[in-house]
Amino acid sequence: MTEVDEVRRIETDAAPTRFARGWHCLGLAKDFRDGKPHQVKAFGQELVVFAGEDGKLNVLDAFCRHMGGNLSQGTIKGNEIACPFHDWRWGGDGRCKAIPYARRVPLRARTASWPTLEQDQLLFVWNDPQGNPPPADVTIPVIEGATRDDWTDWVWYTTVIEGAQCREIVDNVVDMAHFFYVHYSFPTYFKNVFEGHTAHQFQNGVGREDTRPQATVSGAPKMLGNTSVAAYHGPSFMIDDLTYHYDDGDVDSVLINCHYPVSENSFVLQYGIIVQKAAHLADPEAMARKMGDYIKIGFEQDVTIWKSKARIDNPLLCEEDGPVYQLRRWYEQFYVDVEDVTDEMTERFEFEIDTTRPNEAWRAEVKANIAAREAATASS
Amino acid sequence: MSARPAPRPDVRLDDGGMEPVTCGSCAARVEVRKSSWDQTSIQWHADALGACLERRASQQGTGPNGAAFVGCSALHLAIREAAVRGELPVQSGEPLPVNPEGNAP
Lengths: 380, 105
Ligand code: FES
Ligand SMILES: [Fe+2]
Prior knowledge:
The complex is a heterodimer of chains A (380) and B (105).
Chain A: E1 22-28, E2 38-42, E3 45-51, E4 57-61, E5 75-77, E6 80-82, E7 89-90, E8 96-98, E9 113-114, E10 116-119, E11 122-127, E12 155-162, H1 167-171, H2 176-181, E13 186-195, E14 198-206, E15 223-233, E16 237-246, E17 249-263, E18 266-275, H3 284-308, H4 324-331, H5 343-346, E19 349-352, H6 356-379
Antiparallel strand pairs in A: 1-11, 2-3, 3-4, 4-9, 5-6, 6-7, 7-8, 10-11, 12-18, 13-14, 13-19, 14-15, 15-16, 16-17, 17-18
Chain B: E1 19-22, E2 29-36, E3 39-43, H1 46-51, H2 53-57, H3 73-84
Antiparallel strand pairs in B: 1-2, 2-3
Bound molecules: FE2/S2 (inorganic) cluster and fe (ii) ion.
Fe (ii) ion (FE2) is lined by residues 172, 178, 182-183, 302 of chain A.
């Protein structure tokens, strides 16, 4: 048997046993400000998120160092979280501030606390298996629209994905063809750039007349195409600067696609969108909801794929696929100790896909779909 | 630390590897692979990035991802010229397309 005739085997390496180093978004900050502590399962642990009277959001290990009470079942008292079991008071810095029935707090009364960042109405938590604080140059860029009156508020979605490791969602950033087959978009330009802790995706696309029925409703603006600059800033937080071009004007939006790991085989996927209140938009908030719901359908289709697919470490790629291997090399930097991060993982790498052949095939498929739809309409 | 399996090289490199190309405007030397006339992979290293003139001149763009440097046009040109001269292989083996859709190639 010659080598090319051999059956190709899928290779699966062990999934990482630790969780990525970096900033992870836990969701909208305001959702944690209802006066109650919140339980969050993340990084293989149980966390408690609470806002003290001072308004600062804090993240601690959920289990009280006294007798193991669950602080997320406790009560916020002043700037501290009070344990439901014996009322020990824990501050956002992880230190026990008071024990109402004790003469003094014992030594070593310190629990794990996670560095937090509140920015653009979102709450971030820093995870580092080595326990180092976030370096000053590892940041999330500011999203101006998120705090401006001429943009909508976040339309935000949260969903728990069981039975998939979060590398599956990160792979999407290089996977041009799946945008056509899974998300019904039509990429015409696609380029990735990895550098340092960012992974960019530059993507332009055209509207698909076979999947956008609203375009045929008379009077509805027709979607001509989209321009997108998306980037992962660290292992889990992607900002997509996304403009849809309609025949009556552009719609500028910022889409967030982020996640945090719950366990080695589950994660919480979150996404959100804000839209600029352009003059030609009658109801920008409704537009943001409509776009968000469309994106939701797309993610649900991704999830169906992830849950049933194999984890594959030796994907067989054609030349029209994106840089999956180089993306994973980049992604690896978040799973090794910081002193083991190599130049290979972080040095700039560019990959521009030739869309000529994919676009020929997709134009033909769109045409065939429209013809089939018209034939079905004519015969009904 | 726990030993992690090293990330695998791109399977497509089996059909042809990355080749060095030097920029015509600066001394940046990068590794390049072209699977077709319109596909390009570029591996940069720190010294090349430090040498790149367009990179140094690039301004912060607009939007939350405005810090991105999309690429160097001088290097892009040098890569194209190397491919046209036959010094850089184009894996598809197709001849240089001439105004495929009435656009400049
Ligand atoms: S277990 Fe928390 S106060 Fe006792
Ligand atoms: Fe996807």
